[in-house]
Amino acid sequence: MRVLVIGSGGRERALAWACRRRGHDVTLAPELGEVTADEVDLVLPGPEAALVAGTADRCAERGIPCFGPTAALARLEASKSYARALASGLGIPGPRYAAFDDVDEAIAWWNELDRPVVVKLDGLAAGKGVTVPTGRAETLDAIRATGGQRFVLEERLTGPECSLLAVCDGTTAVALPLAQDHKRIGEADTGPNTGGMGAYAPAPLPLDADELVATFVQPVIDHFAEAGTPYVGVIFAGLMLTGDGPRLIEYNVRFGDPEAQAVLPLLETDLAQLALACTAGRLRDVPVTVRDGAALTVVAAAEGYPSAPVRGALIDDRGELHGAIRFDAGVRDGCVDGGRVLAVTGIGDDLDAARELAYRRLDRISFDGMQFRRDIGWRALGGRLRSYAAAGVDIDEGARAVEEMKRSVEATHDVGVLHGLGSFGGVFSAKAITALDDPVLVASTDGVGTKVELAARLGRAHGVGTDIVNHCIDDVLVQAARPLFFLDYIAASHLDADLVAEVVSGMADACRAAGCALLGGETAEMPGVYQPGAFDIAGTLVGVAERAELLPRPTIAEGDVLVGLASSGPHTNGYSLLRNLFAWLPMDAVPPGFDRTIGEALLEPHRSYLDVLAGALDTGTVKALAHITGGGLPENLPRVLPDGLDADVELGSWPVPRLFELVRELLPLMPAEELYRTLNMGIGMVVVCAPDDLATVPAAIAEETWVIGSLSHGTGKVHLRP
Hints:
alpha+beta; Dna Ligase, domain 1; CATH 3.30.1330.10; six-stranded mixed sheet; elongated
């Protein structure tokens, strides 16, 4: 066929590529012009502006098949207030909203809503008419900045976003692979909105594209068909996966950019034949077939984009790469001539392969001021993880290993052992050694785990020295013991004196803060066992407690309450999951809501609760302490409970820190139970006390605490209550 593609950006280059690879004769033009039916067989309008301007209407007048809606139907994108009213009338799930011409009325509505909002200009704005303000001052500024134009305020929703593209023939809509794009200029989705800095497909989300079409697209198609104005073309539904299910963010009336560059390379069906069938109302006659695998697109933008792109830089391209495609956008005569200059799409058997190809191809391209995101696809990793075991750690197998060891270990015990394997630390009566009446020794041995890999990679080893000491301090503290001395062990492929000094410095700082001695200093150089540059640390801490003050106490009873203390971060657990989850996000990125880089947040040292709990322990009202380590709340609370009691934890009873909120957002497939037994989710220590002592225990703790649940009759389980 002779195909005319309207437009000249990256999306239009992708449309042309998709048609040319099937042998069609393709011409790109900025507008329809005076083309007639005897000169072209099919028109594919790319940008929304062409459709709003009536390209499809003029094609109809000339008898040219056009894969795009009329100007009247293009209002679905051209007017956000119209689209919201239509969707609301059809019962399509979306946020609360209102449209305004008056700034004061909008502010009054927002004050009554009393929730964060998104500010959207009503008309077309090249993908940049949306502001997501933070805080009251930014929201007021965003509303006032609308400058007298009609605009919409929408309740801000949270969750992963996805792009649903459906081809429509007036009565039927069929989904293309779900995509996810990256609107913001900065890594970790920070900075101002752009037209799009990258995309990938299919998006690994727990959503069925056909079901989404039935909910968000087909009602619109049916509405226009019943009105006698059938919709032909693409409907792009921007969706957000919230805790209450998918919700509509916006409608577009064309292929997305850069979604088209990621989705079209996966389409096996001839795009031109598919579009032509839609113009004739025969979509059902052309099966929509998609290849296996994935595609990922990275956009390279000009210096100064999105506010003031700098044009004129010469583009140096050192050659093509099999499996990767370059789609030009803002390019003229080999030089930069627009904001989004070009895009590179990698196509592979899976998203990892596609991503590698895209970035390898991009490495061959350069121009002055070139900017691109290094984290395209970073949110996709969480879509693969349904459990901690999927990240390489099996909590159940670890618990089974402890049970298997118990029989052998307990065979060595005598009356001097009070608490052994399976508690937070071994407790050995000092009487068995010294014949003293009251003191008992409490010991804990542990490691830092895969957090050390991240510390080694970022060159920040001091904190993991603190981690190992504080972890062990907290493990003996739960039995009311104060630390006496700590012995350390460091192993590496090749020992680096500076590295060892940094780790030991962290240990020494933690020991000084706890008033205990740092002993030991055992090191091991093990080439071939550890990867070059990798290291591991472990340690043993010995403390002492009065026998009469040992925890947990036998008085724990039904009705006792759980008081939570904040963690300082993930502490030393869950890093196999976290490293997988953030593998494609640069560690120097600062995600929204963070006050530091993601690397710094992940490496925040494990805190010690020794001093903060001293006053509460002195009151004599603490019945038990539970250190929330590997296994989280579900696995650690039962370790201090007597038989016949369950712990009922009320989710939402404490503020979940931003890092854990982001983790939860990135793991749509992971059940809450699995998430809360993988990470501490913001609670690092739990105090068990009687309800009558709630005035005493929190008052003796010099920081904010939260009542997070209570004990009930049961079989030793933890119930997470929404």
